[in-house]
Write a structure and sequence with these properties.
3 helices; Helix Hairpins; 73 residues; single chain; mainly alpha
């Protein structure tokens, strides 16, 4: 994944399937990073917090969108 992730504002402009795809990709990347750390090959452990932060950002935007559509109906 690129070092520059989309901001919450950019995520709000994304369609939901794209956000879900990005969420799955981030989960795969954090899993791979954990495996590399367990093997002793990973040296960029600071990326864990960045992965988790971006995952939380995506979840926040998805929940905001879900609540907006629930209020409209």
């Amino acid at each position: 994944m690129a070092d520059k992730w989309p901001t919450a504002k950019e995520l709000r402009a994304m369609p939901e399937p794209d956000m879900r795809t990005q969420l799955e990709q981030l989960r795969r990347e954090i899993w791979q990073a954990r495996q590399k750390t367990a093997e002793g090959a990973q040296t960029h452990t600071h990326r864990f917090s960045a992965f988790r932060r971006q995952i939380a950002r995506i979840h926040t935007v998805l929940n905001q969108q879900r609540r907006q559509t629930a209020v409209k109906t």
